[in-house]
Design a protein that fits this description.
424 residues; mainly beta; 2 domains; single chain; eight-stranded parallel sheet; elongated
Length: 424
């Protein structure tokens, strides 16, 4: 266990005993008190990161290193041993940059349950230091049993976000990392930003077993990175306890790889419309919130994906909820099925506050199935939606070209004055 070290400002009294009297002399000075062999931290020189560096833990140092500068590097490896404690001043950060197409720069910080690696501010306040950015596609990037806290002082660039850990936020880095068994705590803006990673990433990027606590917002993601969030992550005590899905650069691209959007017991809050161009499964109990005039749509393979498919199977105990960011009738457009995948399904779900199309008020829907497309739908409740149109409606072109809707009308629940299904 690391011991506690402290500094104090002392008033020294030079005392001389004189016959019949006491003479004193006051002198104020800065001294270092060393207790039981405790040592002060080492101040890192950021100019040393031109070759591989290993940082080690010293049991006699409560804090191993102080960083008062930018640790920026691109073609070397930073290795940090278990138990190492690093504190950052307001001038500190770690930035692993991509060097043109060279992704050789890496960080390897593998702690243990008993000896986590700690990255924290010299003051335990949100936004004290900038944070960590991993901008390389190096498979060896790994953070295991680490603590990242007190970061998010400023964005990585004017158009980028800020927070504790950012993946690929500098120079289009498209970062990759294995983040496991770690704690992301007390960071300004976001605990983790994963908007800037590849939209075709399928492996070597793992986010599991982590705790996101006491941040302003735990995670900022793009629609093509939501599947990277394993259900073993925990989100608790954050000021805005949600997974924000933002239209940052590249996040408006459709999903291109198959994956599951898990139920993390906090909502996904989308900032724009969502295009699914791969097979996306939504787990029971998940809550998805959409802003004004937005939509959730399956699309074809024109962008190179596997083909859009929506499998949203909730349960009676844990329905999937598609709702608006505000409880306002006709806030968002609704769900569009525009692919012919034969297993598209919405079941045991709640769909609410839908039925608006600002660009064409006559062309509105709550759930729409396009020409020659397919959807199975049952056990769905529609609340606060557009009563001027049916809850579900299908398009057709002619007798050979029509939507196929497998619908159990007895299990579709709508408000009074709202029709259930209509062929167009």
């Amino acid at each position: 266990m690391k011991k506690r070290m402290y500094y104090e400002k002392a008033l020294l009294f030079g005392v001389a005993i004189i016959v019949f009297g006491l003479f004193s002399c006051d002198k104020e000075t800065e001294i270092e008190i060393e207790v039981d062999g405790e040592k002060p931290p080492i101040e890192l020189d950021c100019s040393i990161f031109t070759e591989d560096v290993t940082l080690t833990s010293d049991p006699d140092r409560p804090v191993d290193y102080i960083v008062d500068c930018y640790i920026d590097f691109s073609r070397v490896t930073l290795t940090i041993e278990p138990g190492t404690v690093i504190e950052f001043t307001e001038n500190g950060r770690i930035n692993i940059e991509r060097y043109f197409e060279d992704h050789t720069g890496a960080i390897i910080a593998k702690g243990t349950a008993d000896q986590p690696i700690v990255f924290r501010g010299t003051k335990a306040v949100q936004g004290h230091w900038q944070g960590i950015n991993i901008g390389t596609f190096n498979n060896v990037n790994e953070l295991d049993y680490v603590i990242i806290r007190d970061a998010g002082s400023e964005p990585w660039s004017p158009s980028m976000v800020q927070g504790g850990l950012s993946i690929g936020s500098v120079n289009n880095g498209y970062g990759r990392v294995k983040l496991t068994n770690s704690q992301i705590l007390n960071n300004r803006k976001y605990g983790l930003d994963i908007t800037q990673t590849s939209s075709t990433l399928t492996e070597q990027h793992i986010i599991s077993g982590n705790v996101f606590k006491d941040n302003e917002t735990p995670v900022l993601a793009a629609i093509h990175t939501l599947h990277l969030l394993d259900p073993s992550n925990e989100f608790t005590g954050n000021t805005i306890n949600e997974i924000r899905v933002d239209p940052m650069p590249n996040s408006t691209h459709p999903t291109l790889v198959d994956g599951t959007w898990h139920n993390h017991h906090v909502p996904y809050v989308f900032q724009s419309g969502v295009n699914i161009n791969s097979k996306i499964t939504i787990a029971p109990g998940a809550v998805l919130k959409f802003p004004v005039n937005s939509y959730l749509s399956t699309t074809d393979t024109q962008y190179g994906g596997t083909g859009g498919a929506l499998i949203a199977r909730g349960t009676a105990e844990e329905p999937i909820v598609f709702t608006g960011v505000e409880p306002i009738e006709r806030l968002w457009s609704g769900i569009k099925i525009e692919t012919h995948y034969p297993a598209n399904e919405i079941s045991h779900a709640i769909i609410e506050y839908t039925g608006i199309n600002a660009s064409d008020p006559e062309y509105v829907y709550n759930v729409k199935v396009g020409t020659s497309q397919y959807l199975k739908i049952h056990n769905v409740t529609f609340n606060h939606s557009n009563k001027s149109e049916c809850a579900v409606w299908a398009l057709y072109h002619d007798e050979w070209n029509y939507a196929i809707v497998d619908i159990d009308l007895s299990t579709i629940y709508v408000e009074e004055g709202h029709c259930v299904y209509r062929d167009y």
